[in-house]
Task: structure prediction
Amino acid sequence: MRILVTGGAGFIGSAVCRYLVRETGHEVFNIDKLTYAGNPASLKAIDNDPRYHFYKADICDAAAIGAIFDEVQPDAVMHLAAESHVDRSIVGSRAFIETNVLGSHVMLEAARRRWNGLEGEAKAAFRFLHISTDEVYGSLGPDGLFTEDTPYDPSSPYSASKAASDHLAIAWHRTYGLPVVVSNCSNNYGPYHFPEKLIPLVILNALDGKPLPVYGDGSNIRDWLFVEDHARALLTILTTGRPGRTYNVGGRNERTNLQVVQTICDTLDKLRPAARPRRELITFVTDRPGHDHRYAIDATRLENELGWRAQENFDTGLEKTVRWYLENEWWWRPLRDGVYSGERLGLGAEEEKR
Ligand code: NAD
Result:
């Protein structure tokens, strides 16, 4: 298949591109604007492969996206490009509305034009996979799991913009018949994760002997999914999911943020011993405004209907991740020294600059 991927220079998108090119026979056409979160270094392993192609473009630019569709003539689209960091959405929501809502609209319209021009088997096989988050469901109490039937109840500008785009994607299926499939996944972690997110930030701060910031009392719970398991899930959903249907993706790995940080400290102490236990670096900081308490995914539909299973549990996936950061300073050092050195973002007091 000729698969058009958006956001392929980001954390999950690059895992998807590497997986498709190295482990499947598909041809990949990656559209990415290369914002601060897009990093061509994450694609180094495949950028000379003849089955990998890169287009630097903004998904909000309808003319550019239309021209790329005309040139590539994709059989399927995996739409991951987004502004993705909740803390940044609190102080700069506009980019989230533009890319996540308006950009998704551009992608849906370009895909509709492509699909309208297809016939027969190619038309029947065409898919638009819209990649979203479990944050659209809001926050859980101590019990229960998010299913595909959980009502939408987003809390942050980020999750509200993703919820809006999910509704557009499903509406393009219901109104125009476009074969859209939606996936909503829990928090991902793994190699090539931009060091503003909890797990890589804590690994790198701990290596530098810097404070390890834990929001609030650290009791917020997330359900962690290893990014390479997610990439496999997305291809499964693209190729076997039913149009108009949503699939939740999760690793059944609930942990409090404090447990995550403590496990990283213990793993680093084991792999690269320091003079003092790294747990001593943990510092509790002001909580994120609107911080959802608990997310947890019920992935039964994906497991039972499409046969996907996570291959990593949190302990095996986290150790792989810590080892990767220890062995790949070439990838993260320029980011720590350049675009983001670990400062606190998103306390909500700042006015948005336009
Ligand atoms: P990321 O921030 O690491 O990467 C986003 C990519 O999109 C970057 O390469 C960036 O350059 C690109 N991009 C941003 N705006 C663009 C635009 N206007 N035009 C073209 N490219 C643009 O994000 P990620 O963590 O890889 O997330 C990918 C998708 O998965 C997003 O849709 C996100 O909402 C969703 N998701 C992520 C997680 C997670 O834990 N990371 C969890 C659930 C859902």
Observations:
- Residues 6-7, 9-13, 32-35, 37-38, 58-60, 80-84, 99, 103, 131-133, 162, 185, 187-188, 194 surround nicotinamide-adenine-dinucleotide (CB under 6 Å).
- Residues 188 and 202 are 15 Å apart (CA to CA).
- The radius of gyration is 20 Å.
- The chain has twelve helices and 13 strands.
